[in-house]
Design goal:
heterodimer, A: alpha+beta, Dipeptide-binding Protein, domain 3, 19 strands, globular, B: 323 residues, MetI-like fold
């Protein structure tokens, strides 16, 4: 009895070690299997309802849109072989022939009509419905032709036509189950989904572009950034990508079996400044804050240059539109102090805090608790504001709490971000138009409204560039946003993986040509 | 004893209902709106209002609470807002993973923590005692996420002995079917998370055992036992340990709750597909039905386990009788 008591823990450990050494480590995958490590589980696999990054990445493999975006974000045909703009408000798409869904049913115009009419139906609660509301009618001209009629000219439509086309028959057959058993036309077929653990896909041998080189793709859900990086380093997964912690990226760069690719993504991190707040409505205050932000230091010290310092609300990925000739107010403490004094804020009672008419200059800077880098930025910023005589304080809540504050207008300054800005319209219209759905800061500028409306109607690239550059210039002066960084998009991939091309939008389209020898 | 157990089981009903009310109230206090969390930043005010109405979030709070309790009383936990799946199905698909991890870690904590404490008590003042207690000190003070990351970097990245994340097949079913390769793979996946989750409890138990043993060893009956010439082993295990066990068993009961709750962090570090992660995600997305259902199930499990602990008192100490 006593002997067993003393020996048991040792026995237990020995048994575990024996068992563990009996198994080949990281059992090599049979055939061509690609194991991806991803940060969150998908909420749904129905493209019409997808609202998270994982869902979109899996859906891209299982579904095709009418069009797809290439690495330079240019539109190219996918299920649509060709399209014509019959009039400013009528588009006609010709479908590719002989494309079949994974359940064997042929793709017809009816499936396209079904996909878009259900998205436009508020009852479906499609999160991206707002992008398609200019569409008034979708109809099948014949089995291989679809006609879209718009309420007004809407240039960005083509870029948003990459929405995955669902099989009408499968949706009607499966009902709500379709979200967990998706049926599309894509390069990979859905196999299984273990919640919070993994999503497994297999090659679609009948894919219209040709059979993919990989036999299987497994998306492993690993929420912790450091664990995900360690899994790549140890060879437990073959591919991981942003979000990643700067320290882990630095370590991965030194890992032998790993290749790290850094690109500028389609996201920004920015300060949203409430234009109707009694303090923040004064442009001199907003400009003073902008002058106090040590942008370069933040990028170097906190983001370790994983993200790049932003110059304006224009993204470098918007080729033809982007220019670095537009600048926001730069780091200049003297100018900031002068602006504060000009706005009437002085330390009249010598308590170290600026005041005006008996009121102290108090500013709260908020962000969300999920992103440690953003918390660091806000803490740094607040300490700088304090040393400039502003009674600043940090407020950290979870994302839903922050979002509610933004929507209700109950905030002064918020550090937050946008992702997936594939087009200037997507990055500016709803944010800065006085009728925009995400104009939480309540910014109104008739000139900006007119320009943004004009941009939607212009198809000519030079015209669009002119319009959006002018909006960016006005925004850099009025400062409803101070854009802090262009978010980096980083991919770490095992060196034995071939043919994977990272795309700044975070798209995994190139999995179709990827192979693992 | 059976009557006592039955009475305790009946008492669970008010306990669970109170847990339901408290969870409901706490979620009301959280900033953030489920409609917004689901429909996202792109949603318009009209859509949000319609969705809130659909969820019944626009009704008076007391009406919401009443309806909720009514459904709970009928074992209807509702559907997840974000995943559009019955809450019970979500819980039943994630609870086994959490139970596996929590049970394994509690086993490890008990099987290693108590003997270590005994050892330290027997060799009081020697380097063995100091070493064990230093380890225990480390265990109670080391943050779980840090320990987890260190173990992954050492055993998965550096030594490449164990997988860095995830769960194999359910261990129990692998053992039942007798497939040793599958069972070994499950064990390999289980080792790091189990140790990470167990370390704190293990450390606490070893310190507690050492303290309880040292207390008991001072008692008169131990001196008597020794005086009548009984062998030291018998003195230690029959006389001392049995009496020292009472506080230890109480703590083990509470530690089960610790293991279930602590599983949240461990599950996140190791990508373990358990209920802890389900709850954290649900809180982040303001998916109230999932949070409420999960808290109720956890409260029920915790209460049942502690009932079990109370019943074991009678076995350990013959003086304790439940009538």
């Amino acid at each position: 009895m006593t002997g067993l008591h003393r020996r048991f823990p040792a026995l237990f450990v020995v048994a575990l070690l024996v068992l563990s050494s009996a198994i080949p480590v990281g059992a090599a995958p049979a055939g061509s299997l690609l194991r991806i490590g991803i940060d969150v589980d998908a909420g749904t696999l129905d493209p019409r309802l997808a609202n998270d990054t994982t869902a979109r990445r899996v859906i891209e493999q299982v579904f095709d849109g009418l069009v797809e975006l290439d690495p330079e974000l240019r539109v190219r045909g996918a299920l649509a072989e060709s399209w014509t703009q019959v009039s400013p408000t009528v588009w006609v798409f010709k479908l590719r022939r002989n494309v079949r869904f994974h359940d064997g049913a042929p793709l017809t115009a009816g499936d396209v009509v079904f996909t878009y009419t259900t998205i436009l139906d508020p009852a479906l609660r499609a999160p991206l419905r707002g992008l398609y509301t200019p569409i008034t009618k979708v109809e099948a001209v014949d089995d291989g032709t679809v006609r879209f009629t718009l309420s007004a000219p809407y240039a960005p439509l083509l870029k948003y036509a990459d929405m995955g086309i669902v099989s009408k028959g499968a949706v009607e057959r499966l009902g709500a189950e379709f979200a967990a058993k998706p049926v599309g036309t894509g390069a990979f077929k859905f196999v299984s989904w273990q919640r919070n653990s993994r999503i497994t896909l297999e090659a679609n041998p009948e894919y219209w572009k040709g059979r993919p080189k990989l036999g299987q793709v497994v998306f492993n859900i690993i929420p912790d950034n450091t664990t995900r990086a360690a899994a790549l380093e140890s060879g437990d997964v073959d591919l991981i990508h942003s979000p990643l912690s700067p320290q882990d990226v630095a370590r991965l760069k030194n890992a032998q079996r790993v290749r790290v690719v850094e690109t500028t993504g389609l996201g920004i991190t920015y300060l949203n400044m409430n234009m109707v707040d009694p303090v923040m409505r004064d442009v001199r205050i907003r400009r003073a804050i902008a002058h106090l932000i040590p942008q370069q230091t933040i990028v170097k010290q906190i983001y370790r240059e994983m993200d790049r310092p932003a110059t304006s609300v224009l993204l470098p990925a918007w080729s033809g539109v982007f220019t670095d000739q537009i600048a926001q107010p730069g780091h200049d403490i003297t100018k900031a102090k002068a602006l504060l004094a000009e706005a009437g804020w002085t330390d009249s009672n010598r308590d170290g805090v600026l005041d005006k008419g008996g009121q102290r200059l108090a500013i709260s800077v908020r962000t969300h608790s999920e992103d440690p880098n953003r918390i660091q930025v806000v803490e740094l910023l607040v300490s700088i504001l304090r040393s400039s005589g502003i009674d600043a304080r940090v407020e950290i809540t979870e994302f839903p709490g922050l979002l509610q504050a933004l929507l209700s207008g109950n905030y002064q300054v918020v550090l937050v971000g946008w992702l997936g800005l594939v087009d200037p319209d997507r990055g500016m219209y709803n944010q800065f138009h006085s009728k925009g759905t995400q104009n939480w800061e309540k910014y109104t500028n008739p000139r900006v409204d007119a320009l943004l409306d004009e941009g939607r109607q212009k198809a000519d690239p030079a015209e669009r560039a002119r319009v959006y550059r002018e909006v960016a210039r006005i925004v850099a002066t009025d400062l409803p946003y101070f854009v802090l960084t262009y978010q980096g998009y980083i991919v770490g991939v095992n060196r034995r993986v071939e043919g994977f091309t990272p795309i700044p939008s975070g798209s995994f389209r190139s999995l179709w040509t990827t192979s693992v020898p | 004893m059976a009557r006592y157990a039955a009475r305790r089981l009946l008492l669970l009903v008010p306990v669970i209902l109170s847990a339901a009310v408290v969870t409901f109230a706490l979620l009301l206090l959280l900033p953030g709106d489920p409609a917004l969390a689901l429909l996202g930043q792109e949603a318009s005010e009209v859509e949000l209002a319609r969705f809130r109405h659909l969820l019944g979030l626009d009704r008076p709070v007391l009406v919401q609470l009443g309806l909720y309790l009514w459904r709970v009383a009928h074992a209807d936990f509702g559907r997840s807002i974000t995943l559009d799946t019955p809450v019970l199905r979500l819980i039943s698909s994630t609870l086994p993973a959490t139970l596996e991890l929590a049970t394994a870690s509690l086993f490890l904590a008990v099987l290693a923590g108590i003997p270590l404490g005994l050892l330290a008590a027997r060799r009081r003042g020697t380097p063995v005692d100091t070493g064990t207690m230093l380890l225990a000190q480390l265990g109670v003070s080391m943050p779980v996420f840090w320990l987890g990351v260190l173990l992954i970097l050492l055993f998965a990245v550096k030594l490449n002995w164990l997988p860095s994340f995830g769960r194999g097949e359910p261990l129990l079913s692998a053992l039942v079917t007798g497939d040793t390769a599958v069972a070994a793979d499950s064990l390999r996946h289980l080792i790091l998370p189990t140790f990470t989750l167990a370390f704190f409890n293990l450390a606490l138990l070893s310190r507690l055992t050492r303290w309880a043993m040292l207390e008991v060893l001072e008692e008169d009956y131990v001196r008597t036992a020794r005086a009548k010439g009984q062998r030291e082993r018998l003195v230690l295990y029959r006389h001392a340990l049995r009496n020292a066990l009472l506080p230890i068993v109480t703590i083990v009961g509470l530690q089960f709750g610790n293991a279930l709750g602590g599983a949240v962090v461990t599950e996140t570090i190791y990508g373990w597909p358990g209920m802890g992660r389900l709850v954290v995600q649900a809180i982040g997305q303001r998916d109230f039905p999932v949070v409420q259902g999960a808290v109720l199930v956890l409260a029920l499990l915790f209460s049942l386990f502690n009932l079990l602990v109370d019943l074991t008192y009678a076995i350990i100490d013959p003086r304790i009788r439940y009538e």
